[in-house]
Amino acid sequence: MPSRRRSGTVRAVGLGTLDSLGKGLALVGDYELLDSGNGAKLERFGKIVLARPCAQALWQPQRPNLWERATATFDREGGLNWHGREALPRSWVAEINGIRMKLSTTDFGHLGVFPETRGLWDWITQTLHEARTKGPGGPQSPRPLSVLNLFAYSGGATLAAALAGCEVCHLDASRGMVDWAKENAALNGLTEAPIRWIVDDVSKFLGREAARGHKYDAIMLDPPSFGRGKKGELYKIENDLMATLAACKTLLSDHPVFLLLTSHTPGLTPRVLQNLLAQLQGDQGHLECGEMLLTGAASVMELPNGTWARWVAPPATA
């Protein structure tokens, strides 16, 4: 039987090691998984409890009486349907692992945050902070670092990097999502932080950055299964991911810190993502991979909801 872990903890498998960031913090902040089962998940975002579909939750709910507490529910039975949406505020703010995020229901059942990534936010902030302060200058003269976040959505990972004192380039093809991410930056007192907000097609942007000679010390990307760029450019992960990763490699600085790849695409298991990074980076550095987990109290079964892999540079080069 799998061991219990809490908060945004991500489980490393294969060549990786256990990532314990966020361990023991399940009920800190405004998010927790309350229960899952019968193809659905029950989550709390602040005072609001939502039930939404989750295909991998094949088991029976552990706490069936809790589901009656749902403020609203969403399903895909005969279409995309919210029930009780009128009881929800137009938007609200939840603090998740120390980062304040604006939440709002979308017609597709999303809220503007994927809480399974919160353990990675912790890791991003800690890793970049250590890379900045453990250099020759130490804490008194931290190393400047530049971070690129692709398919950046509402900016959780962007803000995690900015909180470590890094310059960040945040890129998404949706102007609406970039504006949403800017609102999140303001909620966290990062309006004046050195963040470049870019609305563009990822492939075109990467090509232009290479031509300009721009380099980044850390790159994060969460490519969609299927998406469109700023001008309708088609992106299909099975056709385009390898080229995207190769372009990212050309933008890594001479002393990189990490390359982080996450996915919600069925079939892209942790080992698949790790193999992609292994082929990209060769035998240099350290590879880790695992599942992204929705978590709550220690008694609540963890719910896998996506995968991740990361290449971390050797200490001598980071």
Word description of this protein:
- 24% of the residues lie in helices and 28% in strands.
- It has an 8-stranded mixed beta sheet with strand order 1-16-17-15-12-9-10-11, sandwiched between helices. It has a 5-stranded mixed beta sheet with strand order 2-3-4-5-6, with no helix packed on it. A two-stranded antiparallel sheet has the order 7-8.
- 42% of the residues are buried.
- By secondary structure, the protein is an alpha/beta fold.
- It has 2 domains: 29-103, Immunoglobulin-like, CATH 2.60.40.1180; 116-312, Rossmann fold.
- Helix 1 packs parallel to helix 2, helix 4 (202-212) runs parallel beside helix 5 (237-251) and helix 5 crosses helix 6 (270-281).
- The protein is built from 6 helices and 17 strands.
User: Which CATH class of the largest domain is shown?
Assistant: Alpha Beta
Average pLDDT taken over every residue: 89
Instruction: Assign an overall shape.
Output: globular
Total DSSP helices: 6
- Structural class by secondary-structure content: alpha/beta
How large, in whole angstroms, is the Cα Rg? Answer: 19 Å
What is the share of helical residues? 10-25%
The main sheet comes to: 8 strands, mixed
Extended strand count: 17
Spatial order of strands in the largest sheet: 1-16-17-15-12-9-10-11
Oligomer: single chain
Written as H for each helix and E for each strand, in order along the chain, the element string is: EEEEEEEEHEHEHEHEEEHEHEE
Strand residue percentage = 25-35%
Query: How many discrete domains?
Result: 2
CATH fold title of the largest domain: Rossmann fold
* CATH level-4 homologous superfamily of the largest domain: Vaccinia Virus protein VP39
